[in-house]
């Protein structure tokens, strides 16, 4: 990693944490640090399961417990078992907690106004646009991609969402039983692999490979959640599939797709895939693509 890039990221982090008051032990002058204030806001008026809070904020369970104990001691929250599932604990705001959250909202609006007020109109637009871009890129950098057993709940979620989207977008719907198979055993090493992307521990995308010895590997089950689109995840998944295929000895990748999936077609073309003559009898396909791969360089 370029050392100058790392230094610039660290400088940006220092500027932001100082400007928003993250260093203060009394965030927004409310006698509690930012971590506690953020939990009050995230809990929301309807409460929130602790499991969801941990995932959303990427908090260690021990640290989350300490923050919640402090808020409970101040009479701002209660933590109780979920009536529907006793194993799940839910944090709820008390009346005092709801009042404190409303005050934090008011003060946060004032802080945002104070940041914008000294700037000219054009500078405000540039700052807000830059913030939106930083938010998108930080979200992209928080996505993790890993190989999963296709029977894992995250994998099941992605495949089900993939089927649902194809059924909605294809003119004639989509029946997996009519399509070329990508069964669990075909996506399990050494026969294949399934990559699943997660953001804050929630599944947001997937892509799979089927290996065929010396023949080209097949790309299957490419899907990105609408919530994660625009973050470059499709390109990242495709790149990681290429790397995985090359490492497994494949010298080419093949895939087929439907004409209605215009975004996918544009992605494949921009990633170096070339349209070729049909190489299978996939009933839902209108386009067939292939890309030659470069063998991974030897460590020696």
Task: Give keywords.
300 residues; alpha+beta; seven-stranded mixed β-sheet; three-stranded antiparallel β-sheet; globular
Task: Give a summary of the structure in a few sentences.
This protein has 300 residues and is α+β, with helices and mostly antiparallel strands. It is built from nine helices and ten strands.
Structural features, described:
This protein has helices at residues 3-19, 34-43, 50-57, 61-73, 95-116, 121-142, 153-169, 233-247, 262-270; strands at residues 48-49, 77-82, 85-93, 144-147, 192-199, 202-212, 215-224, 252-257, 274-276, 287-292. The chain is of the alpha+beta class and 300 residues long. The longest helix is centred in the middle third of the chain and has 22 residues, at 95-116. It starts with a helix and ends in an 8-residue tail after the last strand.
Oligomer: single chain
Global outline: globular
Percent in strands: 15-25%
**Mind describing the biggest β-sheet?**
7 strands, mixed
Integer average pLDDT: 92
| CA(first)-CA(last) distance | 22 Å
* Total helical segments: 9
Structure summary, number of beta strands: 10
Which secondary-structure class do the elements indicate?
alpha+beta
Poorly predicted runs of 5 or more residues: none
Largest sheet: spatial strand order: 4-5-6-7-8-10-9
What share of the residues lie within helices?
40-55%
Note the run of SSEs as H and E.
HHEHHEEHHEHEEEHEHEE
Radius of gyration, taken over Cα atoms and rounded to an integer in Å = 24 Å
